[in-house]
Amino acid sequence: MLSARAPTAYAPTKTNAPTKTNAPTKTNAPTKTNTPVTTTTPAKAPAPAEPPTRPAPAAEAPGSTQSLPLEPLTHPDRTLAPTAEQGLPRQDVRHFSLVGVIWDDPDVELHGRVQVRTRAAATGTWSGWQDVDTHNADHAADPDTAERTSGRVRGATAPLWVGDSDGVEVRVRADAGAHDHRVEETARGPRTVTAGSPLPSGMRLELVDPGTPPEAASDVTAGAARARALAPTAEPVAALAAVDASAANAGLAPFGATEIPELTRSQTERELLTLEAPELTREQRAKPKIGPRPRIVTRRGWGANESLRERKFVYTKKVKAAFVHHTASGNGYRCAQAPSVIRGIYRYHVLSMGWRDIGYNFLVDKCGNIYEGRAGGVAKPVLGAHTLGFNTNSMGIAVLGSFGSTKPSASAVKGIARLTAWKLGLHGANPRGKTYLKSGGGNLYRKGKNVRLNVISGHRDGFPTACPGWQLYRKLGTTRSTAARYQGR
C-alpha cells in the first residue's frame, strides 16, 4: 500500500504522442520528498490526476510513466564536484515494474555508474543495489534519419525490469576523470580548463508501469467501433492504429489475431511463393531455402497500446542480415511476465527515449517464445532502431535478459535460430553466409563504407559494445548452423 503521509507532488502530464508537455497539474502520487514527478499516461489531454486507486475508464489505455528529476547528492568525499553524483533518496512512489534514467542530449554519453534499489509491492522488502546498463547509445536509429533528428530523442540507459514495486532509491556517480577538459589560449599562455558537468544535464528517473492489456474484443474492428461510440466526434487513434498493425500481417493470420501460427516446411514454401513471388530468383522458386515459419505473438498478443507509437510504418528494401541483441533488462522475469516486460520496454523506448516505436523488430523470451516488435508486418522489411548505423537492410532480434555472465537458455537460442531461418529465408539469405551492409555512420565504420558481416551477427560486430553479452554472443555459431539446417542447407 502507498503511504498516506506523503506530500503532494507536481506532475506535468505527458500525452500519448512521443513528446513531453510542460503543463503542470497536481497529483496525489505519494512520495517522501517534494521531488517533482512527471506522469506519462495515454490520456488525450492533461487533466487533474485522481487518486492512484481509481480504476482506469475503459477508453483509457493501460500503463503510466513517473518521471522524477535527479538531484545532487551530498557525499562525504568533498573532492567530488557538486554534480559528480546525483540521485534520489529512498521514497514511496506509485506502482512500477521497469526503471531507467534519461537525459536531454542523445549525443552525450553517461560515463559513470547507475544503481537503483526498489521495494517489492507485495512484501515491502527492499532489494540490494542493482546496476543499470549505461551503454545504450548504440541501440538507436541511424544518424540523419527522421527518427533520429525528430527533436524528441533523449539519451538513456537501458531499462531494468524490477517487478511490481512501490518504492525506489537511485544514485548516479560519474567515473573519475569524466569532466570535459579542454585547452584554452590566454594572455599568459595555454591553460587546461574543466568545463561543464561530469554527468549529462537533465537526468530523470523513469518509472514505468506496463499496465495490463486492454480487454480483448472479438476482433479489432469491434474495438474501433467501441472507440467511435465513446468519442464519436474524435478519431479513435488507438483503435485505428491497432487495425493498421493487425492489417500489416494480413495473409499470415486472421484479422486481430493475438498470434501468428507456426507452419510446416511445405506450408511455408507455398506461402513464400505467395508473399515474395515477384522478387524470387529462379533458384528460389525451384528449391526454396527457408525454415518453417515459427509461432509469433503479435503486438495485439502482448498488449501493445498502439496509440503511443507513430502511426506511419517505415520500411527498408530487404533483410540481408540479422543483428542479435540482449535487452540488458535483467533476468528476473518469468515467461508469463514477458508481455509485461515488452510493454514496459515499448513505453520506455517511445515516451521516455522519444523513438517512434519499440526499436527491435522481434523479441525472444527465455522460453523461446517469439514476439513481434516494431509495427509494420512480421514478414516485411520494417526499418528498426536497434543497431546504430546498420538498421538499413537488416533486422534486430533482442533476447529479453542480460547475458554478460549468465548463459541464455537453450530455448532462447533455438528461438533465434527458428526466427532467422524463416525471416532470412524470405529474402534468400544463408544464415551461415556473409553479406555487405553500408554503414550509416556513428558506429565502428565511417558513413558510406561497405562492411562485410556475418548474415547473423551480434550487435558488437558493428559497434564497440558488450551487447548481446558474451554468453549469448558465443552461441551465435550454433545459431547460424541450426538456422541453416532449418532452411535445408
TrEMBL record:
SUPFAM superfamilies named among the record's database cross-references: N-acetylmuramoyl-L-alanine amidase-like
Residue spans of biased composition, Basic and acidic residues class: 179-188
Region (Disordered): 1-88, 179-202
Highest taxon of the lineage: Bacteria
Composition-biased stretches (Low complexity): 1-47
Domain called Peptidoglycan recognition protein family: residue spans: 294-442
The family this protein is said to belong to: Belongs to the N-acetylmuramoyl-L-alanine amidase 2 family.
PANTHER family: PEPTIDOGLYCAN RECOGNITION PROTEIN, PEPTIDOGLYCAN-RECOGNITION PROTEIN LC-RELATED
Name of the protein in its database record: N-acetylmuramoyl-L-alanine amidase
Protein's organism: Streptomyces plumbiresistens
Organism taxonomic ancestry: Bacteria, Bacillati, Actinomycetota, Actinomycetes, Kitasatosporales
